[in-house]
Design goal:
12% strand, 128 residues, two-stranded antiparallel sheet, Arc Repressor Mutant, subunit A
């Protein structure tokens, strides 16, 4: 997994973030499903815009897609790709590479001193 995926998610435009939000809320969706969800949320967008955004999100590694047969042709079905665990693994790997065991010990000491409320806040920041 590329470490850039989570960074990419944080650098998305407003409509891209909205599309990712739709995918997080549902297991699998088609471009039409996303379009209807966005319209339910008050967004006036074209089908082609949604399709382009989904293609770009897939290229960035933020969502998965598979094709399925549909009305004599094919269509894509999209799903959100949970990258949090991969990102944390990559980040910790970078920490070890850069600072060795000393960096890990320092991180552990810092985390030991956090209150439960601070740990919850940290988890929320990592998710956003």
């Amino acid at each position: 997994m590329r470490c850039t995926s989570l960074r990419s998610e944080r650098m998305l435009g407003p409509l891209e973030r909205e599309v990712v939000s739709v995918l997080k809320d549902r297991r699998e969706v088609t471009a039409r499903d996303v379009l209807l969800s966005l319209r339910d949320r008050g967004k006036d967008v074209a089908y082609t815009t949604v399709s382009t955004i989904l293609t770009r999100l897939h290229a960035k590694g933020l969502i998965e897609r598979r094709s399925e047969a549909f009305k004599g042709g094919e269509r894509y079905v999209y799903a959100y790709k949970d990258i949090e665990g991969d990102y944390i693994d990559s980040l910790l790997g970078s920490l070890v590479s850069a600072f060795g065991e000393r960096g890990v010990v320092h991180l552990a000491e810092r985390l030991d001193g956090l209150s439960p409320a601070d740990i919850r806040k940290l988890r929320e920041r990592l998710k956003s």
